[in-house]
Specification:
Blueprint: H1 2-24, H2 28-88
Helix pairs in contact: 1-2
């Protein structure tokens, strides 16, 4: 997720700089320099955002998993207690 978000954001920003350069009739060398710089900066921003999103998703999934396991264990314990009560009566 980190690499894909970084690549997507960087490529999008680079494309916008190239389109702006074409629209304004700038020299190709100037546009290429700005576009590469923009690509690098926005890839860094995308990588950071991707790392944060990845961590949040992992924490969320782990939390849901732990809750489900706890719910299951409580259900098994309750079932075992009910079974023991039924056998005692």
């Amino acid at each position: 997720m980190i690499r894909s978000l970084a690549l997507s954001l960087g490529s999008f920003a680079m494309g916008l700089v190239v389109l702006r350069g074409i629209w304004q009739g700038e020299m190709a060398e100037d546009v290429a320099t700005e576009a590469i710089g923009t690509l690098i900066v926005f890839m860094g921003i995308g990588g950071l955002a991707g790392a944060i999103a990845d961590q949040l998703i992992r924490d969320g999934v782990e939390d849901l998993y732990r809750k489900r396991v706890k719910w299951f264990q409580e259900g098994v314990e309750k079932s075992a207690l009910e079974e023991a009560d039924d056998q005692d009566n």
